[in-house]
Amino acid sequence: MKDLDMPPGAISVLDRGFIALMDHMGDDTTIVNAARVSFGKRVEKMSERDERLIRYLLKNRHTSPFEHVQFQFHVKCPLFVRSQWHRHRTWSYNEISSRYTEVKEEFYVPTMFRRQSPSNKQASVEEPADEVCFNVYRNEKTGTEEAYIESCKLAVKQYRELLKAGVARELARAVLPQAMYTQFYATVDLHNLLHFVELRIHPHAQWEIQQYARAILKLIKPIVPVTVKIWSEIKGVEVK
Ligand SMILES: Cc1cc2nc3c(=O)[nH]c(=O)nc-3n(C[C@H](O)[C@H](O)[C@H](O)COP(=O)(O)OP(=O)(O)OC[C@H]3O[C@@H](n4cnc5c(N)ncnc54)[C@H](O)[C@@H]3O)c2cc1C
Question: Against a cut of 0.85, is the pTM above it?
Answer without folding.
Answer: yes
